[in-house]
Amino acid sequence: AQKITQTQPGMFVQEKEAVTLDCTYDTSDPSYGLFWYKQPSSGEMIFLIYQGSYDQQNATEGRYSLNFQKARKSANLVISASQLGDSAMYFCAMRGRSGSARQLTFGSGTQLTVLP
Amino acid sequence: GAGVSQSPSNKVTEKGKDVELRCDPISGHTALYWYRQSLGQGLEFLIYFQGNSAPDKSGLPSDRFSAERTGGSVSTLTIQRTQQEDSAVYLCASSLTTGDFQPQHFGDGTRLSIL
Prior knowledge:
heterodimer, A: mainly beta, 6-stranded mixed beta sheet, about 0% helix, about 50% strand, B: mainly beta, 4-stranded antiparallel beta sheet, globular
């Protein structure tokens, strides 16, 4: 079974500052992928960034980077230079390779508010 | 359009009625997923289709829920004899394949309200 834990129900950050959203995971699958999605108040689910379990380097995508610590089973999202448009719900998710692990398992989300 | 398309965007119906939700995946995507998001909750997996393989129905909450995918493209999620607890946003996603870690791309969802 897979499990994603996001312990921060809500976070606040000042505009232009960096923020880290926490995500820890648990899985018995030796090969897996970790994903972050953004869900604005309008409801659409937007893919942000992906990290494979065997990737040697942390993933980066523009202002988003993933701080992947495999031994600690954590995959924190770092948003640099926050913008007002970053205010949204952020979900961490994972997929394995085998059987029921192939669907995405989501965490409960972190509501990020960027303050002007 | 280039993205996942879902219809209707909103559906209000009376308890006990059947509803059909439609998903048109991104062209060329062989994998299609249905999820449900209840108010204030994360996403709950319902079912996925991969090419011509038998679908994984392990997430369907009851036998009132069913889904089909015709011609490897458009999918329909059907809920029979709707109950108030079925009220949620139903999200469809597609990806190039399930064989590796292709990201899933989501539609805007169907907001279902059962009166």
